Amino acid sequence: MKILLIEDELKLAGFIADGLTQAGHICDQVADGNKGLEMAMVGNYDLILLDMMLPTLNGLEILKNLRSFNNQTQVIIISALNDTEHVIKGLDHGAIDYLKKPFELDELLARVRSVQRRSLAQGSLKLQVSDLKVDLLTREVSRAGKPVILSNREFALLEFLLANQNNVVTKSQILEKVWDINFDPGSNVIEVHLYQLRKKMDKGYDEELIHTVIGRGYVLKGEVERG
């Protein structure tokens, strides 16, 4: 998932961001409430991890603003404000979970996985295109029965292409959904990752699944079977 972490304790934020990245997620982090709200509104995130006590704008105000503009991105509050009143306020204003500080990273990752499972359950956990099989939860990929080992970023690219099968996706769309805010759009990193993904998935097979559409972008062709 693409996750926004709004947390002003920099050491804790770095620890959480590292853990999320190692678990295969893409994580942007910001320490300021106003900037966090701005990023949340335009960043197309799957999940927001939100501290309550923030400079310039507190977490509850961020949550109120998101919902007032009909932004329904799922939010987990992470806060040292752990009395019942604050928990109730957070949940009543649209958060789906409230994790009290201090907490173990494993517990936070378990809450994130729970959100991911609920999101995936709206579609399907296992996808197949031709002889390519992808398990979105376990992140296992195989082609013609042979395992395909992908990096976290390559898997995110594949997942995005699968979600848009038979539709051309542009570099800017990939940048928005698969890369973080620190990425330099002028670099060729996206092209390099797509080259590596195609090499792992298509090399040695008669049927190519990922195609370059010159001047437009990339497309994964084929009918996706869900099961």
From TrEMBL:
Domain of life: Bacteria
Modified residues (4-aspartylphosphate): 51
Domain OmpR/PhoB-type: 124-222
Residue ranges of every copy of the Response regulatory domain listed in the record: 2-116
InterPro entries, per the entry: CheY-like_superfamily, OmpR/PhoB-type_DNA-bd, Sig_transdc_resp-reg_receiver, WalR-like, WH-like_DNA-bd_sf
Residues in the DNA-binding region annotation: 124-222
Pfam families in the record: Response_reg, Trans_reg_C
Keywords: DNA-binding, Phosphoprotein, Transcription, Transcription regulation, Two-component regulatory system
Transmembrane segments: none
Gene3D superfamilies with a match to the protein in the record: 3.40.50.2300, 6.10.250.690, Winged helix-like DNA-binding domain superfamily/Winged helix DNA-binding domain
Protein name: Response regulator transcription factor
